[in-house]
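Hi C.,

You asked whether I'd gotten around to modeling the 319-residue construct. I have! Everything is below, sequence then structure, no commentary in between.
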Amino acid sequence: MNGNILEIENLNVHFPIHIGTVRAVENLSLELKQGEVMGLVGESGCGKSTLGFSILRLLRPPGMFAGGQIRYHGSDILKMREGEILGLRGKRIAMIFQDPLTSLNPLFRIGDQFVETILTHEKGVSKKQALERAAEMLKRLGIAPERLHEYPHQMSGGMRQRVMIGLALVLNPDLLIADEPTTSLDVIVEAQFLDLLNELRAQFNLTILLISHNLGIVAQMADRITVMYGGRLTESGKAEAVFAEPLHPYTQGLLASIPNIKLDQPQLHPMSGAPPDLVDPPSGCVYHPRCPHVMDKCRREIPQTVNKDDHLAACWLYE
C-alpha cells in the first residue's frame, strides 16, 4: 500500500435518468495517504460530494458504479458484502454531511443518537459510558452536555452541525470525509472545529478528505489539494505548489476569483461561463468552452494527466 489508506482507480459513477445519463464522476483516480489531509475543491456540481458518498457506498438509485475501484487498506469497497460495509461506516470511515437536518433523526434526542452510534459498533460499552463520551465530545465542540436531552429542532443550525461533527468523530475513525463541514458555523466555532480536527489528527493519525468551497480553510488545513471539474480530476498536488503555481487554467480561474486582502485588487476576476451539463458534456476537454487558452486539440481529445514533480494536471498545455 506504500502508506496509502485509500486508493481510487478509474472510478466512474453514473446516474441514468429519463433524458440521458449524468456522468457525475468520470475516470477519476487519486490516492490518500495515512495521516494526511486532502482538500477536494471545485464548483458546485463538479462531483465532489458524489465522490464522498461513493467511498462509503452510499449512492441512492438511480446512481450506479460504472467501473473502477475504491480500495481501503487494499480491499475494494465496491466488492465488499453489505455486512462488511456496515462495519466500516462510522467506525473506520466516518462522514460529516452538509445538511444536518437530513441526517439527524427528528424523533430521537441528541443523546440517544450518540448512544445508538456508539453501541452499534462497540458491544462492550454501557449506555452510561456512551452518554459520558457523548457529553465530552459536545464539550469539546462548545455545546453544554445538558443539551444531549434535546431534540434536533431545539438547536440552531450551527449547533446541529456541531452535533453532526461530534457523531462523526466520537468513534475515532481513521478516515474522515468532511463534506462542507463548516457551512453553518460562525467563525469562532469554525476555528474551534479546525483546532479539534488538528488535535485529533495529531493524536490518532486521522486521515481527512476535506470537501469544501472555502479555499481559505483548505489552504489552512490541507497537505495536498485535488481539483475536480465536470466529474473529472483536473489538478492535484501539494497544497503549497497548487496555490503558488496552479497549472490548470480552471485552478488558475478559481484562485483569481477569490479576494485577497494582501494584494491590491481593484476588482475580482470571476470566471466566465458555467459548469457543464453532465448529461451532454463538451467533447474533448470538459473545460474547453470556458478556457482562455483553448486549442483545437482541446475540443477534440480528452487530455492525459501530466505529472510535473508530483504535481498532476490534465491539460494539453503540458503535453
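If it helps when you're writing up: The two ends are 29 Å apart (CA to CA).

Thanks,
B.
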